[in-house]
Amino acid sequence: MSNKIIPYGKQDITESDIQVVVETLKSDYLTQGPRIKEFEDNFAKYVGAKYAVAVANGTAALHLCTLALGVQPGDKVITTPITFAASANCVKYCGGEVIFGDIDSDTYLLDIASVRRLLEESPKGTYKGIIPVDFAGRAVNLEDFKKLAQEYNLWIIEDACHAPGGFFIDANGKRQLCGNGEYADLAIFSFHPVKHIASGEGGMVTTNDESLYKKLLQLRTHGIVKDNNLYQNSSAFAGESNEYPLWYMEMQTLGYNYRITDFQAALGNNQLKRADIGLEKRRTIASVYQKAFADKTFLRGQSGVVEGHAYHLYIIEVPNRKELYDYLRSHKIFAQIHYIPCHLMPYYRNFGWKEGDREKSEQYYKQCISLPMYPTLTDQEQAYVIELILKFYATR
């Protein structure tokens, strides 16, 4: 084991994946073809949403959401500091203002109590929306957030990049899958290689709102429409007859080229077919970690395997974190840190954020470390990771 690199996350590319990509590369369409709609339809079905829009990456998905919801300069939106920067940056792309809540120290998710405090401290109408993140794969209880959002007339974007297949249990005892559109206006996913479903790059937006769905389709492709019923110029302008010619199209708003390719969609769609198998393997790996560390006083972590957790990451909080990180790397185990709190990034410090502003998030960051977690992690590799961690703390 000492000569093998064990990363914190890793894609699983099978011969079947390679075959569908090659078939698509040999087809008539490399982009804007049938594979994209096929992937969208299957993904919408997987999460239980009415609509899905495939895009270039998760960041593009977030940006399209804020555009579709009409975020304007000065609009205030609340999100968590413990997330990848894109969850906050999408608001800034539209000129909005990001306000960070704090996390719950037990779940690592955006603390609804901290969000309520922010809302109560300002006049109603101050805030426009909330972007909760299903961090590490643990599903946010969006039923509770939806009640709060309705009270203050806010929209919700669910950042579910870590949690396809994850769920929470609602007040009626029903499983609510991440991204199903039941409680969030829009939800987004990522298909980066370390995610559950890999397409190289790629993302998806899901929603149950038809009007938002149509906006997303337009914004994804330069703001262009190709629909006789939606054209604003007259048919006389468009051609020499009373009908719009087949080549006609209109740019009606400022959009972007956020399209995904057909071969990426083919890969993502093929990976989707075995998504549940990978999810169960992740939960098995989590249960092994939980059992190994259950009675260890040197760490703080989530107790028990959490129902509905999708386990994109397996995180523990430990003392001597930097020493453990270096020790594991010296044995070719590339653990990772997720994440440096967004509000302490130099860019966001420019807006007045400073150390001490979000104490729970900052305390979490000082001790967190993400252990190897991916479906092809072998029992032997996981046992080696556990052995080294126990060995490290046995001498301290």
Shape: globular
**Continuous helix count:** 14
The CATH architecture designation of the largest domain is 3-Layer(aba) Sandwich
> What order do the strands of the largest sheet run in, or round the barrel if closed?
2-10-9-6-5-3-4
Which topology of the largest domain does CATH recognise? Answer: Aspartate Aminotransferase, domain 2
How many structural domains?
A: 2
What proportion of the residues is helical, as a percent range? 25-40%
Largest sheet: 7 strands, mixed
First-to-last CA distance: 24 Å
CATH superfamily of the largest domain: Type I PLP-dependent aspartate aminotransferase-like (Major domain)
Low-confidence blocks of residues: none
CATH class of the largest domain: Alpha Beta
Describe the overall structure.
By secondary structure, the protein is of the alpha/beta class. It folds into 2 domains: 7-272, Aspartate Aminotransferase, domain 2 (3-Layer(aba) Sandwich); 274-394, Aspartate Aminotransferase, domain 1, CATH 3.90.1150.10. It contains 14 helices and 15 strands. The chain has a 7-stranded mixed beta sheet with strand order 2-10-9-6-5-3-4, with helices on both faces. The protein has a two-stranded parallel ribbon with strand order 1-14. Strands 7-8 form a two-stranded antiparallel sheet.
